[in-house]
Design brief:
Layout (H helix, E strand, L loop, with lengths): L4 E7 L1 H4 L8 E7 L5 H15 L3 E5 L7 H8 L1 E4 L2 H34 L2
Parallel strand pairs: 2-3
Antiparallel strand pairs: 1-2, 1-4
Amino acid sequence: MGIHIRLAILFGSVARQTATASSDLDIAVLSDHQLSPEEKIQLIEAFAEKFGRPVDLIDLFDPPQPLLGQIIKTGRRILGTDEAFANLAYRNIVDQADFMPLRTRALLERRQAWISK
């Protein structure tokens, strides 16, 4: 597998140690580039074979909010340097500063629409 993984973070029920036999493995990975669909499949198959569980893989090259914040807050780093994790955490802070006002406005608009019914 020729994919260079700079950072890997385990999150979800396995990271919280609340997994059941049917739980999947939630893992977020950061490479030097955005993973292609073929690379994602390669990684999913490799992790599934190694850990014997279905895998939910998140590419940290361009992750959605608020998922990135949840991964940073609750995940367990299993591969990568402190610097790589700190850079991702910093990016999360910047993304949240951009994203949260939009999310808050959307929630307020939904609430107003619901109240107005």
